Amino acid sequence: MDATGADAGGMARTAKSGGVRAAKAAANRARMLAAARDLFVAQGYASTSMQAIAKQAGMAVQTLYFTFATKRAILTEVLDVEIAGDTEPVATLDRPWVAEALAADPAGQLRLQAAASARILTRVAPILEAVRSTAAHDPEIAELWQTNIAQRLTVQTRFAEALAAKTGLRAGIGTDRAADLMLAAFAPEAFHLLVHERGWQVAEWEANAGDTLIRQLLPDGPQSG
Asked: Do 137 and 205 belong to one domain?
């Protein structure tokens, strides 16, 4: 084998080895995030230590600190992953379901928003409840909670603007108020109360949220969707 062949073989082995290491690192990261999520939900953020997360994940605590540095960093990434449903670096407003909803007729848009919110909140409402309950006495987590609200409002404002461009909103409703009503209808607190505390089925919550926004935001008359 000539030098060129030897170099190519070495590069292939190096690439393969790097791929294996990357896959192992990603799997370990996912284990740590899953362990943190389960513990934050089960016993609260404040009561969960880095040592406990490492033990739950079956990892050395030094590995946990090396990967995330702080408990808040873990919580932030847990939220990001649970909201997205994956680890892809794609913003919410760039997700395919958003484009589908924005392209729908007015009632269809609101029902697609409710369907997406049901899927997202099924994943993230328990961890958001842990964040909300901690925010009352932890300034760092209070800041994280406010950031989450602001992010949700940004998304709903985009939807409200799109809705207003498709149809005249109900009299007295502007885009700011429409965004606020969407924010309230899809609030994780309401989802947690009705689904986890009152025993509603997720499909019932979804239908109610969509119907409520159609009544609140759209003018009277036949609506598609």
From this structure: yes
Radius of gyration (C-alpha) of the chain in whole angstroms: 22
Asked if residue 217 lies in contact with residue 103, where contact means CB atoms within 8 angstroms, the answer is: no
- Whether 150 and 110 share a structural domain: yes
- pLDDT for 190-218, tens place per residue? 999 999 999 999 999 999 999 999 999 99
Same domain for 121 and 190, yes or no, is yes
pTM for this one? Answer: 0.84
The verdict on 85 and 104 lying in the same domain is no
> Across residues 40-49, what is the average pLDDT?
95
Q: Which two tokens stand for residue 17?
A: 């080895």
Domains contained in the chain, number: 2
Query: Whats the size of the chain, residue-wise?
Result: 225
Using DSSP, state whether 176 is helix, strand or coil.
Answer: helix
